[in-house]
Every structure is written in C-alpha cells, then in structure tokens.
Amino acid sequence: MKSSTTFAVEIQQDAVDAADKPDGGVPRPSRVRHLALLTATFCALVFYAHYGVPGSMASALFKPPVTVSSLPSLASVTIDRNSGRAEQPVMLAEEHAPLTPQATVLEANRSTAMPAPTPTDRCDGRYIYMYDMPPRFNDDLIRDCGKGRLHPWLDMCPYVANDGMGQQLADDGGVFPGRGWYSTDQFMLDLIFHARMKRYECLTKDASLAAAVFVPFYAGLESGRYLYNYSISTRDALQLDAIDWLVRRPEWRAMGGRDHFLVAGRTTWDFRREADVDELWGTKLLTYPAVENMTAFVLETSPLTGSNFAVPYPTYFHPEAAADVLAWQERLQKVGRRWLFSFAGAPRPGSKKTVRAQIIRQCRASSLCNLFHCGGVIGGGAADCNSPAGVMRVFETSDFCLEPRGDTATRRSTFDAILAGCIPVFFHPGSAYTQYTLHFPRDHGRYSVLIPHAGVAAGNVSIEETLRKIPPEEVRRMREEVVRLIPRVVYADPRSRRVGFRDAFDVALEAVIGRVAKRRRGEAAGR
Predict the structure, then answer these.
(1) What residue stretches are annotated with the Exostosin GT47 domain (predicted)?
(2) In the chain, domain spans
(3) What is the rounded CA–CA span in Å between residue 414 and residue 176?
(4) Which one of 85, 415, 464, 517 has the largest count of C-beta atoms within 10 Å of its C-beta?
C-alpha cells in the first residue's frame, strides 16, 4: 500500500501535466486521479480515528485483550474485545478493590453492549414457607405454663423463658464462662426451633417459592401435658384438630403434605400409641397417614419409619456467634481431665434393656471412675442430675463418658458429654449411630467407643480395662474430633442475627430441603 504522501505527489503531478497541453483544453479525467482521491480520503479518516478519538473502533481493533482483576464480581477475567465474551469467570469474596481506569471503561462498554448480570438470589432453593397457625397450636400452650399444665408436677414457666432456652446460668465457679449458657429443659425443642424459624433469613409468604413448608405446632409440648393418667380422647384432641386444620389448607393440597415438616421435641415413642386404649402410653400423632406424609424431627426415631429423623437434644449452650463456640472449644483443649471415665445417671431397676446397674457397680469398684449417681448420696451429699453445673463438672474432668440407654435408647447426656469434650461410650448402636445420622460422622470410631451391651450385662467385659487399652494419642485425637462436633450438635441462640456457623438447626433444615427436593424429582419422574 502506498503512503498518503506518495498519493499527494501523484495528484500534484497530474495538475502540472494538464497545464502544459498545447491546445489549452481541459484534460480528460484520469482514473489514477480518482483512485488517489478515494485513497487519500480513506487514509485521512483512519489517521483521525486512530489519533483523535480515544476508545474508538480503531483502538478496539488494534489493542490486545485486556485482563481486569478488580471487577466487583469477577476475578482474573480475560475480556475478548472481538467477541465481547468473558472467559473463565471466578467469583470473588465480598470485599473488592476499586475499579481501575481500564475496568471503568470496560464497565461502561458492558453497560451499553452487554445486558447487566442478574443478581444472584442467595435464598434460591432455600425459601421456607411457615404457617401462621391459630395460637391454640403454639403460643397458647406456653402461656399456660404453670405447675401441672405443661408438666404434671413442675412449673415449666422458667424453662419456656428466652424462647425455650430457660433462665440464664451464672458462671458457677467457672463452669459456665462467657455468654450463651442457659438452664434448658431437654423437651423444649418445639419452642427453640420455632423461634429460630421466625428469624430465618429466607422465609417467604409465597408458598409456591418454598423449598419446604414448616408447621409450627408444638406437638412435643402439647403431648407432654397429658402423658400421665389422661384418657386417649384428651390426649389426641388437639393433635387431631391440628391435622384437620392442615389438610384443609391449599398449601397442603399442592403435594399432600410431602413438602411439609414439623418438630415434635420428644422421643418417637411418645407419639406411637399402638391402640386406642387408655392404659397405653402416648398419642398416635406420628401414625396418622397425613403426618406420615410429612417429615418429622424428633429426639429419638424409630427404625421402622423413613419419615422421622432424630435431631440432638437441646443442651445448656446456645451461642450467639461463632466466636462463642471457638472460645469454648479452646477452653476445652486446656481442661485437665483427672478421671478415665464417668457416669451420671440412676439405675433402672427391673429393666433388662439397660446395663446401668452393671455400670454403676463397675464404676464404684474403679479408682478411675467418677460416679454421679442421680438421686443417690455420694460422699454425704445428694447428686442432682438436674444441676447443669454438677453434670458439666463431672464430664469436663473425664476422658470418657458412659452413655447407656435409659427409658429409651437415647439420652440427652450424650450431647452434654460432647459439649464438655468428653468421648461418649455407647453400649448399643441404637443409642447414637442409627439415630443421629444427620449430625454425627459415619465413621463412629473417630469420636466414640462402642462396648457391646451383652458382654457388660454378662459380666464378661471390664469397662476400665477396655478404655485403658486405648493409647493416649488416640484418646487425644478422639477428643479433638468430639470438640469439632460441638457446633453441629448445639442450637444457637434463636434471638441472634449473627450466628455465623452451621448449628443443629441448620443441619436439620438442609436435610429436609434436600428431602423435599428429592421427592419433587421423584414425582416429576412419575415415581
């Protein structure tokens, strides 16, 4: 290609040739002249575009791709200016560097040449619809909390305080340092869970958006009122009323309740009466077909059902934030443990389902066991298993905590032990391994010990000898695993807006959302 200077010389020479013609006439137009004029015009435009207009088409054509690392939503994104596409986007954290001049220009170009990205919905797939049930199914129950109302012989009003956490505990000689410690009754999960749901960040009033539907019926608290010496018609009345109210709702009809869940904060056996006979224990709540369609969280489940899931018993610890958990975990790593093992509990005379009597006998015979005999007399003083400080002192000073079954297969004591950094010792898989599958690791040997029930019952197994055989390094590793479990098995303060860690509530909620999603996929596939 010729330069613009060469084209200008050729045009001037054509004019001289025309002036020298002898006839003085007008020369015929030259094709070279036309070509030169067009070419000069084009080159002038290119020259102007290249040097006179920043950010122009020419600049876009001749500049190489630009890498921008400070965009608010992308990191190390290479923008191909020819295609307008961003390659390999990587999400950044919430903190961003200020835009560079290049990035500012790029953002301006994107605003005109590309559609703005749609903001990510952080609640997508996590929305929960919560019924606004008549107060007779929840709030009215806890208003009437005096002696003989929620419990046959106890005043439960101190325990329903603070959204079910109970009264705040004092330091008590250093047993409960920091904040987050409450005298929590083991059967307050209905109230704690509901209070947490009220502040759940992804509640929706549009049931069609919901990943699951929560039923805030205080089934556990309600059934506890009438477990002793009441007719089945009295025991069943409010539960049947709640079911009738539910099945009439349009939200229920969408999936027949298969996207619904509730919390019944007692063991499953309190809701599985086998017949309509006054002498039989409990209610029939979990056996009704409508309720079987739902997912129910209970403190202990039955191996015969797939619609109920066991969740941890409430403990005394309800941290407001992750920092509270971390401070407690760090404290546990420094606690001196003078006892090899301990047991806090009472015998179950006449029961063939538990080895408590044998455990108490072995513990008394061992200089390495700390026995906290509930209701009995130890060293001249009463051992009160309802004393949070007393129980925690025993567990904090022990390497292993014995957790046999009691009235049922599970115990709240298991979670108090974990909270104290004490390695739980089980005597039957049904006390934990087949129960808390959502919250406990599958590798049970990482955090616990299993001593078969039969050997202890027959007197063929020494608990002390079994535990002494575990190497100190293995004990240390197991304790660290137990301490790591603490966030997953405690319920955070339901009033807190800055929890910052996954607690037992979060684990359960994620499980029910996943279960409902699987059910929907099954229905879509025609199963």
Answers:
(1) 123-466
(2) 128-310, 328-485
(3) 18
(4) 415
